[in-house]
Amino acid sequence: MKLYIAGPMSGIEDHNFPAFNRAADRLKEAGYEVENPADHGADGYFTWADYMKLDIPLMLKCDGVALLDGWTHSKGACLEVYIADALEMPRRYVDDWLVEATK
């Protein structure tokens, strides 16, 4: 199963990349394939919309969405969850996916 990580980035130190990368490592260790939006890094010339245009197609190639804490305070993550829900993609917090992997 391939999971997309969704969570807050804007306005957070280091764009919250450490949390995204920790989640990606943990999910991979549990046997998931992972699409981590932090992998493209940050480009000072990109707008929020530019990142969403990159990230949404990546999410659509996944089977589910792994949520980071604070996602509800992120405009981008809320959009990603809206799309996931509309497409009936499962979404859970990272820890819940990890529990699911042990079943």
Distance between the termini: 14 Å
- Give the radius of gyration: 13 Å
- Total number of domains: 1
Looking at the overall shape, the CATH architecture is 3-Layer(aba) Sandwich
Strand content: 5-15%
Structural class: alpha/beta
Percentage of helical residues?
40-55%
Number of continuous helical runs? 4
What is the assigned CATH homologous superfamily? Answer: Hypothetical protein PA1492
Shape: globular
Give a structural overview.
The chain has a single domain, classed as Hypothetical protein PA1492 (Rossmann fold). Helices cover 45% and strands 15% of the residues. It contains 4 helices and 4 strands, in the order βαβαβαβα.
Walk me through the topology.
Elements: E1 2-6, H1 17-29, E2 33-35, H2 48-60, E3 64-67, H3 75-86, E4 91-93, H4 94-101
Parallel strand pairs: 1-2, 1-3, 3-4
